[in-house]
Amino acid sequence: MEEMAKVIEKNEDKAIVQILRHSACSKCEHNCDLAGESHEIEAMDIEVENTINAGVGNTVALEMGSKTLIFASLTVYLLPLISLIFGYFFGEWLGAKFNYSSVEHAGSMGSFVFLVLAFLILRIVNHRLKIRKEFQPQITKILKS
Quick one: which of 137, 143, 140 has its CA closest to 48? Predict the structure, then answer.
């Protein structure tokens, strides 16, 4: 995946780049409640390695590997969903095993507990993946000086 960004600050071998976000709402002509200023962030600043020595003001291409992007997306979306479903059945099984009066209630509690655990796991995974280079966008070329 390739994205355009503008270098706004340069520090030795690192650069802070600003990525302009594109979404369906930014192009929409309808005036709805979601179109307010608080709904979307127009730009996002991130720090990346500046291996090609891009200067402040340069427009650059950022790239991240497809496999790492797919892995990260699947992890973020599927882990909570699978945990929610598994938690329900585990809670239901546990409720039946201990003769809990409402097995469905036990399943709902199990879903909630497993969902919270999934988000805690995602937080740990996020912290560990930030360190790995393949999960960081790289400046691949200078588009405009």
Answer: 137
Number of domains in the chain: 1
Q: What is the 3-state secondary structure (H, E, C) of 89-111?
A: HHHHHHHHHCCCCCHHHHHHHHH
Q: Is the pTM of this model over 0.90?
A: no
Q: CA separation (Å) from 69 to 5, 11, 17, 25?
A: 18, 26, 19, 23
Instruction: Looking at the chain, list the stretches that DSSP marks H as alpha helix, in order from N- to C-terminal side.
Output: 24-27, 66-97, 103-131
* Residues belonging to the chain: 145
The residues, any chain, with a CB within 8 Å of residue 61's CB and separated by 6 or more, are 2, 3, 4, 5, 139, 140, 141, 142, 143
CA separation (Å) from 33 to 28, 29, 42? 12, 13, 17
What tens digit of pLDDT does each residue of 42-81 get? Answer: 788 988 988 898 999 999 999 888 888 898 889 999 999 9
Domain range holding 126?
A: 2-144
